[in-house]
Amino acid sequence: MSRNAVQESLYTTIFGTETRAGKTFDVTLIIIILASIAVLMLESVGEMQAKYGDWFFTIEWGFTLFFTVEYALRLYCSPAPKAYAKSFYGIVDLLAILPTYIAMLFPGANYLMAVRLLRVLRIFRVLKLMRYLEESNVLLAALKSSSRKIFIFFYAVMVLVTIFGSLMFVIEGPERGFTSIPYSIYWAIVTMTTVGYGDLVPQTDIGKALASITMLMGYSIIAVPTGIITAQMGQQMTTQRQTTLCPNCSKPGHENDAVFCKFCGSELSQKEKQT
Amino acid sequence: MSRNAVQESLYTTIFGTETRAGKTFDVTLIIIILASIAVLMLESVGEMQAKYGDWFFTIEWGFTLFFTVEYALRLYCSPAPKAYAKSFYGIVDLLAILPTYIAMLFPGANYLMAVRLLRVLRIFRVLKLMRYLEESNVLLAALKSSSRKIFIFFYAVMVLVTIFGSLMFVIEGPERGFTSIPYSIYWAIVTMTTVGYGDLVPQTDIGKALASITMLMGYSIIAVPTGIITAQMGQQMTTQRQTTLCPNCSKPGHENDAVFCKFCGSELSQKEKQT
Amino acid sequence: MSRNAVQESLYTTIFGTETRAGKTFDVTLIIIILASIAVLMLESVGEMQAKYGDWFFTIEWGFTLFFTVEYALRLYCSPAPKAYAKSFYGIVDLLAILPTYIAMLFPGANYLMAVRLLRVLRIFRVLKLMRYLEESNVLLAALKSSSRKIFIFFYAVMVLVTIFGSLMFVIEGPERGFTSIPYSIYWAIVTMTTVGYGDLVPQTDIGKALASITMLMGYSIIAVPTGIITAQMGQQMTTQRQTTLCPNCSKPGHENDAVFCKFCGSELSQKEKQT
Amino acid sequence: MSRNAVQESLYTTIFGTETRAGKTFDVTLIIIILASIAVLMLESVGEMQAKYGDWFFTIEWGFTLFFTVEYALRLYCSPAPKAYAKSFYGIVDLLAILPTYIAMLFPGANYLMAVRLLRVLRIFRVLKLMRYLEESNVLLAALKSSSRKIFIFFYAVMVLVTIFGSLMFVIEGPERGFTSIPYSIYWAIVTMTTVGYGDLVPQTDIGKALASITMLMGYSIIAVPTGIITAQMGQQMTTQRQTTLCPNCSKPGHENDAVFCKFCGSELSQKEKQT
């Protein structure tokens, strides 16, 4: 099936960001997404729901229809509809409309868990906004490149909180609030991450001593992953400088924001830059 | 209008810091600013206000008149009064005196919100102190140069707290204190930033599990922006830069071995190099 | 005693990870370890223990017998059984089975401290999992290489919390909850590590001022060890090192351009350089 | 006055750490310091004081006499007694004995503030321990070299908490616990440093929004000083490598733990190394 002019034009507007129409579309979409999230939040406030419940119902259907049309158009004009449907943003776009339709199928009590879940899942529309901030990819890439190290750090923290939580269960015991090992592990996480709710605190002297060790450990070991990630990023930035060569004089060492070669003044080819 | 000798002399004293008179003026001003902030703080203490309210009123008018004269003199002796009035410190200087005058126009009940706000806005005089610490500009520059990255980090954190907060609203629900999505997002922020007030804590087992994930995430991802900022600063500090500007596009920040401008490709004049 | 074929084959399966059988064994072991920890956690929940206590007892014996056989086989097939038994994982493997046997010797009341401790010590089986994540060694190495610096940081923090805690004891005193110096030091640790349970807070104005200083100090000094560790790691990662050992003193870690050993001054043999 | 043999010998034992006698003296002193701190801590526990008060009194006098003799001997054998008396450790040594003597002059009620202060000041003996950990100087040097930056960070944080605290005072007001500006600033410090006691939390919606901004700011800006300090330390470590030259071949770039030149194998002069 060959693509026609309508599809091409729609594609430039909906997926592109260079044209005037594309920019207008994007700004409109951002505003509508934010509005739909705002409505969802207001809806969750008891008094608001009691007072304006009917309005919210109507407005929400308006948003859902708009996002449904948007999703249909994206499928229609995309050169590879299947790839889009399976992509991260394709799934997010689908999830943005599904809950309202499913909720329609199960009418009834308003605040049952399942219904509330469906209503709230619409909050994932916030992910649609990520498309509009290029740099969010930089952060995601940074998280991804260090994900293995962060995972190991998680793993080490998990082992530590399991051990500290279990010891605390033995020391304080159910009679002082540490009712089970999983709950004691929850305490250890609250303590080690330095959150410290204070809903569960040690009461014996040994318990306080162990809690102190847990805190000091949590306070100190955060320096290790920070160090690893920072060192790696510093190296990545240096590598980037070393691997960007001038197409004219082949010299490396250009800064990341350089457009022209600092040695011969010729323009640096954009293809070779990977910033 | 040509500047006369009085203006020149005042300018050196008020804006300058090299002369003896300039230094005396600066030290006096710092002491008066600190005194005015101290008075404002004491004024906010109920018992103090009840006891010494009249004294505070008189003293505050003294401070306001002093700062009014200072502002007038700065405007008078500045070679570019308009530019000063529009500058950051010009606005701060004006804000330091306005609240007292406006409060005079609306006498009456002492602790109404609006009046309290006007009284407290005088606290911004603290910003006048920033003029006297050169290095505060270093920190501001550091914040500015990494503001885009910090903003993206903020954005990512906002998306995460929106999702975690909403899920928590579904799991715990209004019957356990999570009365609305905005309030649940507040909980998510308190938890993710590892503040952990403890005024709102999960009570179900699933809620505690989700809270644990939120905490561990907040504890870990702080390493990413720290890493990015540190790596960038490290590179900036290790790169020796010329003090010269590009003769064509006037942009600074060229490395020592640069012969051509990295922004526009024109040759950097060797005479202007000073390193 | 020469090793026979059975020992060799078992060794490849149990200690190795390259063969198909070895991988199957490892995956099975991981699942059983996780299952045994899960059972232990459920066992600690009062209601579960009351309901399924007998089942847990039987299952736990199953796990213990399995780990006993595993330990025996490891001892049998290891080329150096004594070295294995004394190694970190050898001791962990032994600790994974001992508590159940010891608990058998002391039957009786279920929730006495000692019995609970024995039951919970089985949680250390979680350490057996560390064998299966190579990178955990990277983290351990990072912790080890910076352990001296972290220790000094600990030491400095200990001195600070001792002083701040003692001053707080004097300021607030037993009548406001700070009943003794050790307990006040516990407060100082909770505050300085930014955990902030809130179970003990200053109530006088001077106490609040001192607490503010403690918090700001805890908030700031964390930057120092992070900085030290990060800088050291950055340098270690950027330095390209030879894989060769010094022929005289056998120390590793020489840089690529090194011709002589930096520790003993003897010439590094060029044949052994492999970079 | 020329120094005699007794003075020389005492000096080597008390101030030195190389001889066997010097080491024995140091270890003994560390044990006695720790013991005296332990006694002080036990003394602060109400029940202990009630039960063993007389014993503590006697033991404390023993410690004080011992430290008095130590101080006298240090003064006697030091080649520059005045310089020692004015040095950091000289003052610490004096402070370690003074409180007991002063307390003797003012007998009477046990738990008056002033008496308690005198008793507790003995805790500063903990500072005597710093003499025995060489690396504590490394940390102190690190803190000192970055003290200006940490101070500016403090200063910026102070400005921020003043502004946030004052705004919160206006928003929440005395009727919701924010009784005065200083107390609201205390809240801002508790929040911004991510300690989060929870003894004072915002209750209005605007208050919660402002608190969220305060938390996110505190969570993010910690990355800036960490970045600055880390970058500076990295540079210091590089500089150290560059400025250590081999006395034989004059080449720079030796690692910090190098004893021999890696290029020519000659020993690096210890005088030129500054680690």
Automatic annotation (TrEMBL), chains A, B, C, D:
<feature type="transmembrane region" description="Helical">
    <location>
        <begin position="25"/>
        <end position="43"/>
    </location>
</feature>
<feature type="domain" description="Ion transport">
    <location>
        <begin position="23"/>
        <end position="236"/>
    </location>
</feature>
<feature type="transmembrane region" description="Helical">
    <location>
        <begin position="88"/>
        <end position="112"/>
    </location>
</feature>
<dbReference type="InterPro" id="IPR027359">
    <property type="entry name" value="Volt_channel_dom_sf"/>
</dbReference>
<protein>
    <submittedName>
        <fullName>Ion transporter</fullName>
    </submittedName>
</protein>
<keyword id="KW-0631">Potassium channel</keyword>
<keyword id="KW-0812">Transmembrane</keyword>
<keyword id="KW-0851">Voltage-gated channel</keyword>
<keyword id="KW-1133">Transmembrane helix</keyword>
<keyword id="KW-0472">Membrane</keyword>
<dbReference type="Pfam" id="PF00520">
    <property type="entry name" value="Ion_trans"/>
</dbReference>
<keyword id="KW-0406">Ion transport</keyword>
<dbReference type="InterPro" id="IPR028325">
    <property type="entry name" value="VG_K_chnl"/>
</dbReference>
<keyword id="KW-0633">Potassium transport</keyword>
<feature type="transmembrane region" description="Helical">
    <location>
        <begin position="213"/>
        <end position="234"/>
    </location>
</feature>
<keyword id="KW-0813">Transport</keyword>
<keyword id="KW-0630">Potassium</keyword>
<feature type="transmembrane region" description="Helical">
    <location>
        <begin position="55"/>
        <end position="76"/>
    </location>
</feature>
<feature type="transmembrane region" description="Helical">
    <location>
        <begin position="150"/>
        <end position="171"/>
    </location>
</feature>
<keyword id="KW-0407">Ion channel</keyword>
<dbReference type="InterPro" id="IPR005821">
    <property type="entry name" value="Ion_trans_dom"/>
</dbReference>
